[in-house]
């Protein structure tokens, strides 16, 4: 078994809509362990580090502004193939096209061009998980 750890963020829209418990429950029911968790009001510096690969892209500033709009829940989750598994559980980035049964498919809303308002973030590789966990948990 390939036990991994990953960063999962419940973004400001998920927190504001009261979906934190539902999302955490889905993660746990999938069999993953919530190894560490905290409510965070990130500052610009943290977000610029987290989204550094997107600097200069048209959606960068709107994404930073959205992530500054309210608290997020940062989760260190562990489990067998948790990186791939959580990303499957989350669904595709755009809630409108995310499959039923996924977090974004069941709970996401169509915000038009505001795709960043898609409830959750999950690391996409072991390398990004290590880097993102360092940024959010030190």
Radius of gyration: 14 Å
Strand content: 15-25%
Q: From N to C, what is the helix and strand string?
A: EHHEHHEHHEH
Lateral arrangement of strands in the main beta sheet: 2-3-1-4
* CATH homologous superfamily designation: Nucleoside diphosphate kinase-like domain
Number of strands: 4
Mean pLDDT: 94
- Total domain units: 1
Quickly give the CATH architecture: 2-Layer Sandwich
Structural class: alpha+beta
Total DSSP helices: 7
Uncertain runs: none
* CATH class identity: Alpha Beta
Produce the secondary structure layout.
Blueprint (H helix, E strand, L loop, with lengths): L2 E8 L1 H5 L3 H10 L3 E8 L3 H7 L9 H9 L3 E9 L1 H9 L12 H5 L12 E3 L3 H12 L1
Overall description:
The chain has helices spanning 12-16, 20-29, 44-50, 60-68, 82-90, 103-107, 126-137; strands spanning 3-10, 33-40, 72-80, 120-122. With 138 residues, it is of the alpha+beta class. It has a single domain, classed as Nucleoside diphosphate kinase-like domain (Alpha-Beta Plaits). The mean pLDDT is 94.
């Amino acid at each position: 078994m390939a036990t991994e750890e990953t960063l999962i963020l419940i973004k400001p829209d998920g927190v504001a809509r009261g979906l934190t418990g539902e999302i955490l429950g889905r993660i746990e029911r999938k069999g993953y362990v919530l190894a560490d968790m905290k409510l965070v009001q990130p500052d610009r510096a943290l977000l610029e580090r987290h989204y550094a690969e997107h600097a200069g892209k048209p959606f960068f500033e709107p994404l930073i502004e959205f992530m500054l709009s309210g608290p997020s829940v940062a989760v260190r989750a562990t489990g067998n193939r948790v990186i791939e598994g959580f990303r499957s559980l989350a669904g595709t980035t755009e809630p409108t096209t995310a499959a039923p049964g996924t977090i974004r498919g069941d709970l996401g809303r169509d915000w038009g061009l505001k795709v960043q308002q898609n409830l959750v973030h999950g690391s996409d590789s072991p390398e990004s998980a290590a880097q993102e966990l360092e940024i959010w948990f030190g």
